[in-house]
Amino acid sequence: TLPIRLADYRAPAWRVERVELDFELGIDATEVAAKLLLRRDPAQDEPLRLEGEQLELLSIALDGQPLPATAWRLIEGGLEVDGARDGSVLETRVRVHPAANTALEGLYLSGPRESGFLLTQCEAQGFRHITWFPDRPDVQSTYTVTLRADRARFPVLLAGGNPDGAGELEGGRHWARFVDPHPKPSYLFALVAGRLEKIERDYRTADGRNVQLKIWAEADAIDRCHYAMDALERSMRWDEQAYGRNYDLDVFHVVATHDFNMGAMENKGLNIFNAKCLLADPDSSTDDEYRRVEAVIAHEYFHNWSGNRVTCRDWFQLSLKEGFTVFREQSFSADMNSAPLKRIEDVSLLRRAQFPEDAGPLAHPVRPAEYREINNFYTATVYEKGAELVRMLAGKLGAAGFRRGTDLYFARNDGRAATIEDFLDALGEANGIDLTPYLAWYGQAGTPRLRAHGEYDAARREYALTLSQHTPPGAGQPHKQALPIPVKLALFGADGRLLPLHLDGQTSTGGTEAVVVLDRIEQRYVFRDVATRPVPSLLRGYSAPVILECDYAPDELALLLTHDPDGFNRWEAGQQLAVRACDALRDGTPPQAVAAWCDALAALFDDAGLDADLLADLLTPPGEIELAERESVVDPTRIHMLRQQLLQHLAVRIGIDKLDARYRALAAQSTAALDAASQANRRLKQRVLQLLALLDPARACSHATVQYRHAPSMTDRLGALTVLARHDTARSAEPLAHYRAHYANDPLALDKWFALQAQLPGEGALARVQALEADPAFTLKNPNRARALLGTFASGNPTGFHRVDGAGYRLYAERLLALDALNPQIAARLATAFNGWQRLEPRRREAAHASLTALAAHDKLSRNLAEIVGNMLK
Ligand code: B3K
Ligand code: ZN
């Protein structure tokens, strides 16, 4: 297939003003009747073409007359119809097969055929699996949807929009109708039908609309929806206050399914969630999962404005809704929880997921220039880097200015399919600022390197900071341009105190924090009246998504780690210092950084004023994937060992007695409570137990055994199990078996059991994964299960996956092939685990190359998997 290019965009020649859909629902076969009111662009002379895939056409009529076979024809991926005029009404009737749909795109069955329910997933191009339609986001229509089905088998019938009648039909059947008055693109269409329970709550919007909030799940899960309901209400209030956005229908439905390709979907008025991102209760969800539920509920809800009311002109603009919505979700979570911790979490994710993407063969700009399969572009770059770009804009405009900008953006583009330019225009215009220089960030792939070099002139009491930028070539862009990089900074004196800033050429001086924007290759900034040689704290709060290269001495980083009041930058200094410590261990150079890192953390360990959760994060050095990003030749085993060595040094430095005492103290306070302090306690307790296990595995495992047995929460239970499984295989067998039996009927808890074992490091992982594949609960058909075992193995277990003999790659490639036949989206997503293979040391690189080449040679690969594997080998 040929790539689709942004440069080739053309407005639709035909639009659909109104859609009426009629569903005769059945598990094996569903019939869909569609009636489209067509509008023609008088400036274009294109025939009417509609997209459709795997549809069995039953009938077709134009303006009330059945169409003769000569007046329509099937073309590649679609249907062409002669004789349509502006105002024509096209009626089609098709049959689709939900139970046979294993790709989980379009209309499909969730769960067993006897008891499962029907649902849809349309973004990006699933609607064409339901009916013939101009399936593109710039075609917006009002929808009237009528569902008909057997009442006993499908007691609940839902579609997006407001309810507009329901009733009985002959033969035990019934019907329900929904009208959505807000014109929407087809990707936001949704329906759900089956046996579901609900919880509800009334909500009154700030602008006075009464809304019924309803969360639906299968009977065994409905009791676990209350937390999501609370989170939904918090999200709605927050969006009213932070962005002035009110909900706009009379009902808001949220539905949970165990069979879903991603986290959740923002269908208008009918959000559908992967159960993993919706269900929560203390017995089966970890603290991290609670926060994730809150964040995803907010994210999908926020899309009602950033995505639905203002949608994307074409899929190249995906980050217009995703980057912005991730940013909104991040701000919400920061407000609900701890802002510095949230920032740490987000930046860690960016480094772990987006940096490797941006540095490898899958690199693409936040606004890609071309794609073959759009589902492959729901990436960390579009989402997470996209959110960083919005954060830079928000920082530039300030809180009030950004709000002025988003108000204008929403007002001006309401009901439209917009572009990134529309976004920058509105933000800029509302503030009298030209933001077009930031457009370059959207078009250029690769992570910029920001170099910082400082010189202090004691005689003149001047500090000169030289900043320069460089983005390595890649993604078909040999010459990268300079980007505007906002650098938030502060200077510290040797005593750890902030110095007042007098920056040359800046009007507001004397404060202790400033932002400079580097918008050329290199620039020098001179600070006057600097009493002593300062230590700069740069990119505070991570003010731009770049890699900072600064020649700090270890004691300078230690100073920031100890004194920076900005929680994020304090953590960041610790991360940089840990990286330097790893380098020293690797190169056998004098271990000053090791000592500096360990000493600073040992002191912070005793600091009663430090929050437990920040301490837990400070005690965690960068992960193996992040460390690997810095190497030109990657040996995953070596990186694993270096990181373990570093942790060992830290544990020794803190000392066994202190670790043990702290663990006991934290364990004594253990409850199931979900407040911030209790969560922080659990987080620190787990870190401490892990460190203790490095010094005295027997003692740590005794603690873990007791903790597992009496755990009041899933966080404690899983934490204990992880320590046992890592440090005492024999002793972990019984609790692992206990967990397996105890949660036999809880798919989400079982996923964690699979993932925990898939993550155990070392060469034994492969055999373990194979044994787990034989577990009767394992199946490739369920995305969560496949991700839990295979995805975790390949992406979360570097020493296990990257075996020198290549057996990890071979097994994985075989599974990708099997998966591709069932669910191309999941196969393609999991295949990205091979990213970075070119930088592996020669033996592993050879082996990975062989597995990828073998995969690529298959002639029946889906477009999804073929694009990923093809790009990987480019
Ligand atoms: N918009 C959906 C993602 C759809 C993915 C399609 N392959 C969820 C979200 O980002 O909110
Ligand atoms: Zn989204």
TrEMBL record:
EC number annotated for this UniProt entry: 3.4.11.2
Enzyme class name: hydrolase
Cofactor(s) the record lists: Zn(2+)
Keywords: Aminopeptidase, Coiled coil, Hydrolase, Metal-binding, Metalloprotease, Protease, Zinc
Every Peptidase M1 membrane alanine aminopeptidase domain range: 227-435
Family: Belongs to the peptidase M1 family.
Gene: pepN
Domain named Peptidase M1 alanyl aminopeptidase Ig-like fold: residues: 446-550
InterPro entries assigned: Aminopeptidase_N-like_N, Aminopeptidase_N-like_N_sf, PepN_Ig-like_sf, Peptidase_M1, Peptidase_M1_dom, Peptidase_M1_pepN, Peptidase_M1_pepN_C, Peptidase_M1_pepN_C_sf
Reactions accelerated catalytically: Release of an N-terminal amino acid, Xaa-|-Yaa- from a peptide, amide or arylamide. Xaa is preferably Ala, but may be most amino acids including Pro (slow action). When a terminal hydrophobic residue is followed by a prolyl residue, the two may be released as an intact Xaa-Pro dipeptide
GO terms, molecular function: aminopeptidase activity
UniProt name for this protein: Aminopeptidase N
Limits of the Aminopeptidase N-like N-terminal domain: 104-188
Coiled-coil intervals: 667-694
Domain called Peptidase M1 alanyl aminopeptidase C-terminal: residue spans: 555-873
